[in-house]
Batch of 3 targets.
Target 1
Amino acid sequence: MSFPTQRPRRLRGNPTLRRLARETRIAPQDLIYPLFVRDAIEQPQPIESMPGQVQHTLESLTREAETALKLGVRSLVLFGIPGGKDPQGSGAWIDDGIVQRALRQLRDAFGSDALLIADLCLCEYTDHGHCGVLDGERVDNDRTLEIYQRIATSQAAAGADVIAPSGMMDGQVAAIRSALDQAGFTDRLRRQVRIGVLWAVPRGRRLRTTLRRPARLPNGCRKRARGRQGGPDRCRRRCGHGHGEARPGVPRRDSCGRRVD
């Protein structure tokens, strides 16, 4: 019998062969743990849409980070919820902002044992909920870029290793990289993560509601390409839903193929 000519089952014959042929390995050090820290609360507050997750106080944040480090998860991404909001989202860049205080506290507690990643966006800090400042009813892209630069340098000064912009402004990666370099953070901030092409799919719950509709796939690929041209030190290759760091790529294999092309 000549069919089939290829028999990949041979590589799955026993556990030793499967380990040898395995292409993907996931270890704790490969994971990034999203942590939410909220200002002006005395106890951690459960997140109803994400069972098992909470908005931390500064104290509980440090305890949770310590637990993660003991498990081998050394990369932490911080999302802040301020005590107050305003049209400019000033809580995102002030020196005593909740993320800035959290970064300093974690850096003091764990030194270089933890890789600290700071989410950069305005939607949680503005009273209107947009990820940029408004000019009337329109988001002012270029004025928002100036604010993103202030946020990035503030987060870097507080101890962030990685700045992870999750906003939707054109040119944000290049603007942030330029601000970091001019502020003297060229060497210390080795990587910059551009949150990539995201979709809403009915598989789990999203951390935020940033959408890329499949019908707009070419536009999403172009936006990702523009982000890469802006000079990010690292773009996370991922397909899936929302802002979590572990996600299945199965629902969006078509987009993964386009991104590789």
Target 2
Amino acid sequence: MAGCGSGPLRCRKTHTGLNSTILVLIEGHDEHKPVVRGLGAESLGGPHLAHRAAIGPNSDVIVVTSGVGPQRAGRVTADCIRRFDPCLVVSAGTCGALIAGLELSDWLVTGTVRSLGPAGDSGRAAGMTLESSAVAEISRLRSVMGTVPRIHHGMLVTVSDQPVVGEVEKAAIARRHDAVAVDMESFGIAEAAAACGIPWLIARVVVDTPSRPLPELGAMNSQSGRPPLGGIARYLLMNPIGGPRTLYSLWALVNEYARTLVRVLPALFTDRSPPALADTNGTHRVDAGALAHQ
């Protein structure tokens, strides 16, 4: 587990009042770039492509790349908590739907994440499950997003060894864990934040579904999150008509996600009382067990 080193952290007090910092971790360079561009963030130098954007007089957002995999993401989170002293940690970026009902460009906004064991057994073994204390922030984020994009909540699972591909494996994981989506970073991010006593939440966009998998581009670079150029070239050569359109659609989806994330992040700094957690305003609680059998 990635520890925070200096113990539980709190928001910093300044002579002008409460100084609030939100730490946003995004898995790859290509997902990170449109967010910092949309925020007008300045580079802070150092590791993890850290950028800072002011949201208000005493409020700012730090955006960094976590890299791929829960162990790496956990180490980056712990390092950035020590460096930036945030009040809230956000696991942002992409995820894959495990069940029908979540479509491309839908969002998963949740505070429930579980680590899974390695591939090999049916549905993968369950590890630890974490529940976020950021109930107010999760509710507030859902409430300001409106009905587009569609928002879902439920269990996200994190795998560490290799991505989950194929309808059969996705259905098995959904049934075994009552899960709706999967990624490779959020458990590590949440675990590191929890070790430091910092609230966390997950706000990710769906980029593949059981019936619409990601294109096979090769293993992603663990630091940049990018597939090898050779893998992209092979894919385009083998799919000369549909390949460019598929890659462009994925690029457009990620950029639209970034625009929405930039729009809603300021809501996390407000002190107004959040609305009750209800399945309104486009928020959907998906029953994984029921849909996985359809």
Target 3
Amino acid sequence: MLSDLKESISEKGAQGSSCLYSRFFFGFVSGVAIAFIVSFFTLIVMMGKGSFISEKQAEGTGLKDAALPAQQQEVQISPEKIAEKAGIDAKAFSACFGAKKFADKINQQSKDATDAGANGTPFSILVYGKQRIPVSGALPEENVQAMIDAMLSGKDVPGVSSEDKKAAASMKIVPLSESDWVRGDRKAKLTIIEYSDLQCPFCQRFHVTLENILKKNNGKVNWVYRHFPLVSIHQFAEPLAQGAECAGNIGGNDAFWKYIDGSFKG
């Protein structure tokens, strides 16, 4: 009898343990399922709003265009509107832009950029006499100014080794010509040749840097703009470049630079 009682108690204990385990397992699974459902519907709501990054948050980060639908980007980036703000005759601009007459020039300048060692934008070359210093990317203004100061004073350029100087001396650079668009005095001592993309956010940032550099150096530096549209990632870069050339062709050097400024500043 005693053994029967022990067996009965053992069976009940086992049943109780099994029941507790079942309750725990069921509660755990239910909790996970509820969390998954809540997360899923939260994600759906966020996607329904169109973006994980608001337009205001994206401003100034280089992400603004990426955070907007393609249709809105197309409205934002309009060569015709940029030309209109720059004061270019609309009819003449439309005829020039539709003909795509500067495609060869833009393609050649892109090739010149890669021949000089560019693999992205902005890519610039500081030229002072026979000295050439490549500048890759949107360097801070103080860094660029330090390079210019060193070059003009005949000192070692900060961050540039003797090996870098030798490599730069053999760079394939197309010299300044009458067909170039130049901001500043063409006879300035130092020339900045920039290869740029009008849809590139880093180029936009560097554009302001070079504007400030020209103001600070009071006629000692000029700035040459050449095209390097990254068409594989920026669908509006090439049309914007075409528009810039049309603006210059119609209205001259000042009109070209107004169009460039308008492309970056809106």
